[in-house]
Protein 1
Amino acid sequence: MSKILADVFPEAVAIPEQYRVSYQEQREYLINGELRHWPGALNTVQSPVYVKEGDEIKQQVIGATPLLTAHEALHALNAAVDAYNLGHGRWPAMSVAERISHIEKFLEQMREQRDAVVKLLMWEIGKTLKDSEKEFDRTCDYIVDTVKALKELDRNSAKLIEEQGFMAQIRRVPLGVALCMGPFNYPLNETFSTLIPALIMGNTVVFKPAKYGVLLIRPLLKAFQESFPPGVINIIYGKGRDTVGALMETGKIDVFAFIGTNKGANDLKRLHPKPHRLKSILGLDAKNPALVLPDADLDQTVSECVTGSLSFNGQRCTALKILFVHKSIVNEFIERFNAEVEKLKPGMPWDSGVQLTPLPEPGKADYLRGLVEDAKAHGAKIMNLHGGEILHSFFYPAVLYPVNANMNVYREEQFGPVVPIVPFEKDEEAIQYVVNSNFGQQVSIFGNDSKKIAMYIDMFTNQVGRINVNTQCQRGPDSFPFNGRKDSAEGTLSVADALRVFSIRTLVATKSTEANKQIISTIIRNRESVFLSTDYIM
Ligand code: G3H
């Protein structure tokens, strides 16, 4: 084993005191406003972090979470169903201003848990301190922006419109009971980007945390419990097949918000007995390509491609997962790319300046090794120093070249630090890759010739959700629409769009006769209805 990984895992004493964790056995879960105690089996939380103990390197077990069954999951669902009460529950019937005050109370308490959540993000999923802090702060900003967007939506709806002899008021109202499930790579941010809009629009929620990044929700349980009326938010734990499968089978889930694989989404969706009643908001697989054209500014392109493919070790749905580089510059590109990869510092999430960290998914390093071996068997080489070296959960980035269509890594979403580079000569080769892909999230084009870039833009507008020019693929800013085509997504998320996807427009309409106008204006003047009202939130 080379030196680069030999020292990557620390001795316990080398871990700074403020970032150490002690074992947490979580037995509580939230149903109907009560933190219930789970006496049964637990799921062990293994950290991607290993620690040197003498001659051995040992994986750290940092806690355990409840392994609930279908029984508890159904209790959670019933609590959400009761709180919704066919649309007459306290929460869905509440005014927007009141719902906002509950969310703001939650945010205040959430902010107090920043250090605890950030620490667990590092230990549970190996995210660097800087990125963990960014994830927490971005999530708080997202909540603030969501409240702002809802106030604006509410202001725009606080008026009557007149059209073709009718007068009407149109407002957005909740859909019912939502099941929210997030991914392990953004267990806080991506989960909350559906959970918060679902709640604020008046839906009641069953929330099941991701596969990894589960303990980090624990510091927020009290805030959830104290900020919302009973049954509005219910938090369950356990294996997906034992818990959420049972929920879908009841047909009582109205909204399914899921960030994960398209296979997982398909398996769950097909369990619902009334598919027409189920509205889905899905963020799924992606294989975003970068196309590097002959006249690309290599300094800028290499820097965007390195962060695009390797930030958080390539574990972002928006990561650049395959690089098509024009043959005329591919050698120089690889040389510069490797030089930048070499500068990325491997280490533990809390180490200053660290960019490469261990991977949280068990067996992931072996899976990536398999992808690399398959590519090598079909003619690719590892181009960078130390590429593909493994120590337990650590996989040092492997830059593969020349990659072709016979290799698994050409199609499969590696979701990890393997960078496949495909040389290309004709535009058509890159275009056909995007057109024939099962995925359609984003693409990045790097170049300087405006005509050529325009041609690519027009080729891709009906293929993917976002075309990035001289910029890596990414979700942000959160006010931009985030979606995908084909197997990559269903529905569009952004701060404003999320409010729309978790609601439906309902209107009150009447013929504009004098008598009807009189009734409507009396209702409004005397504030007799919550819905039919011209009051708005400042
Ligand atoms: O994993 C998918 C995330 O939505 C990506 O977000 O582009 O801001 O890292 P990001």
Protein 2
Amino acid sequence: MSSQWILKEEIDEILDCYDQANLKIATIGSHSALQISKGARDENFKSLAICSEAVSWFYEQFDFIDEVISVRNYKDILKKRFQEELIQDNCILIPHGSFVEYVGAEAILTKLKVPCFGNRITLEWESDREKEMSWFEEARIKVPKVFKKPEEIDRLAIVKFFGAKGGKGYFLVRNKDEFYEMKKFIKKANSYLIQEYVIGTRFYPHYFYSKILDRLELLGMDIRYESNVDALGRIPPRISRSLELRESYSITGNIPVVARESLLPKILEIGYNLLNASRKLFSFGIIGPFCIEMICTEHLELVCFEISSRIVAGTNFYMDGSPYSSLYFDEPMSCGRRICREINLALSSGRLKEVIF
Ligand code: AMP
């Protein structure tokens, strides 16, 4: 990515002009916007949902959303005038998965001057697979083996496409011959990653690093509900063979899960390791929510393959809190509300700039 990143100092200057008693929590109407807006209401902030014309009616139904703005294209957020209006309105943007996908990590880093919750630099690290792997390496976390070329494949492997939407079109192969047979599914423009397929159970813990309390919280946990791989088991092999069904990992929903308690210290330790590594690798490190996709093998080893350093959609199941969030809070605490609570904690201790970039 280019070097003309927006500097933290520029955002700080903008924040200096904000009326801090009247902050508004804003996000794009998709992904986890309901949870974020509800959390804003619970924490006594006004909220704004920026929606496509097609879905604004949906978000307008909810009383806890104070304002809905329709846009033709989500990239309109980047227009100078639009940004000025958001700044005028004392908006704090909450980036989520669709936000990053629609606006683009690079545009957020180089063009978006509206203050955002968290550390926007993390977006560059989560969206670049090589950087992500070096982050795992720095944290000394176990990751699946990567095969640099198809000829190296010596076990079950998953082929992932860069920029694929939520696992769409990924496939499994056992050797180079199967890879070349499946190659027809790889369009020229697609670059791909061949990674060892780890057999085990999935756990996608939702972490929240509170800069203000200097505490890493485990707020919840989910697994993804993926089509069609989660549907294939419902069709007997004698039929699926003749249908020539091919696996895909398109995310369609999320399923709640809890891990056996003896895994929790390991899961939290992995979170701490990634947090500490983030501070070594880039300025400010992780602030706020992040999620690590991991698989637990039959030997109870946790192997990590993906990190999202922002709110993930798997938190949507826990709009009223999760079994884990109740260990920290005596009230329903969604991840969206936790973000807004952090802003409140920062405001009351005069440390807003520490959680906003
Ligand atoms: P990703 O795009 O990396 O989040 O992967 C999408 C989905 O593919 C995951 O939710 C898993 O179901 C599956 N998956 C990805 N990588 C692996 C792996 N190395 N081993 C087993 N399953 C994986």
